[in-house]
Design brief:
Blueprint lengths: L1 H10 L17 H10 L5 E2 L9 E4 L7 E7 L3 H17 L3 E5 L2 E7 L15 H11 L3
Helix pairs in contact: 2-4
Length: about 140
């Protein structure tokens, strides 16, 4: 849980689903939610009521020893900047991370702590399938 909170705090302060991500070349929250739900991964609004332009979604409970965090940025440039600024720390801490256009996805194995070295961990297959599903849609 602490690692999930740390990842959420490190990336951005999230917003509620009521704050619509208007990315011309990106994905909308609904498409991401549907893709994850199709893989049996429930995501909830991690920061309901926040006024940040970033929508933050996370898994409410661990699944097979991991949790997922999904961050939808208002544009591709912001998502790329955040991902590039954080990905080395995430991966060296043994977390999986990916970016598709304006969406950053992190997966934190239970017990992992940001900044503490850990061996690499691959993206779980259901998460990879969810990313492939929403990113294949135009």
């Amino acid at each position: 849980m602490a690692a999930s909170v740390a990842v959420l705090a490190l990336v951005a302060t999230g917003s509620g689903l009521g704050a619509t991500v208007k990315a011309k070349n990106g994905y909308r929250p609904r498409a991401v939610l549907v893709a994850f739900r199709a893989q049996g991964i429930k995501l909830v609004d991690a920061n309901a009521g926040s006024l940040s332009p970033v929508t933050t979604l996370s898994s409410p409970r661990p699944r097979d020893g991991w949790r997922v965090g999904v961050f939808l940025y208002p544009n591709v440039v912001s998502a790329k900047r955040s991902f590039d600024d954080n990905v080395k720390v995430w991966r060296s801490s043994g977390m999986a991370a990916a970016r598709q256009k304006n969406v950053v996805v992190t997966v934190v194995p239970n017990g992992r702590v940001i900044g503490r070295k850990a061996k690499p961990w691959p993206m779980p297959k259901p998460v990879a399938r969810a990313i492939a599903s929403f990113s294949s849609k135009k």
